[in-house]
Amino acid sequence: MTDRETTATPPAAPGDAAPRTALVFPGQGAQKAGMGEAWRDAASWAVVAEISEYTGIDVEELLLKADDETLRRTDLAQIAVFTVEVLAHREAAAAGLLGGVVACAGHSLGEYTALHAAGAVPLADTARLVAARGRAMRACAERSPGTMAAVVRLGPETVETLVARVQEEGGRGEGGRVWIANVNAPGAIVLSGTAEAVDRLAELAVESEGKVIRLAVGGAFHSPLMAAAADELRAALAAVDFAPGHTPVVANVDARPYASGEHWRDLELNQLTSPVRWEESVRTLAGELGCVRFVELGPGRQLTGMIRRIADGALTVPVESAAALAKLTTPEP
């Protein structure tokens, strides 16, 4: 624990002003085998059956019995992570941990949970959208194979230069198809592209004293290779009625807060083929929106680590299990 991470944040007493709080939700990659066990005895566990009914997927099986290999499948991973996030959000709200919420944000898939938590989309519609998104992305990745990779020890300007060089060398062929997919935190950039193009950039990164690490993902997400997935998701988004007004959600594609449902169909379509601007999003939450407390709801602590690198002095509150929540809401003796 550091001075910026809390392990004991009791609910505010009546009349107390809660700190300006952002709710944040991780994306695909946070999943792990057995992650539902952490919430199995929670009062909100019944939501697992609800989401199974809405999507036609046995979500309880995924959360309790699926192995890591099964959970690498894009469509299954996304609905599993989404469900755990909904569980964490419901339990944290019931425990009184979510006072002072002024905005929400989610990383990639997590943006859908953020929209639900913000009151923009009801649970049934959000679950169906997540399922449709996962299916579309998986099908697209099978038609247009690709990969993702993390770049370490290089700044954004250098990475942009290397990406431009690979694109120029490879032209329109497989060797030139690489893009920046995520800007997560200082020194944390992720690429998407064909295997050939990512391998070439890895060679150039070594020359610049950097390193490229392949990620175990099912496709080149957040890049133009996902264009077909956007086409498939469009119909699912058109069938959803977004609330005309809701708690602000900071969008991945431009790091701007939106509090009106009219924008989200276009934003979510663009998100599939555009970089996730997470570092900028956190700066918007901490700066423009004045958030001093960040509650991460879902499996793991991926976003907590990023936020602590971006927003100096931010109070980070990871809620990855019922046990962690109990510690957070039990006053110290």
Structure report:
It is a single chain. By secondary structure, this protein is α/β, with parallel strands linked by helices. The protein has two domains: 21-142 and 225-328, Malonyl-Coenzyme A Acyl Carrier Protein, domain 2 (3-Layer(aba) Sandwich); 147-217, 2-Layer Sandwich (Alpha-Beta Plaits), CATH 3.30.70. Helix content is 44%, strand content 15%. The protein is built from 13 helices and ten strands. Strands 2-1-9-10 form a four-stranded parallel sheet, with helices on both faces. Strands 4-5-3-6 form a four-stranded antiparallel sheet. It holds the Pfam family Acyl_transf_1. Residues 7-21 have a biased composition (Low complexity). Residues 1-21 are annotated as: Disordered. Residues 24-328 form the Malonyl-CoA:ACP transacylase (MAT) domain.
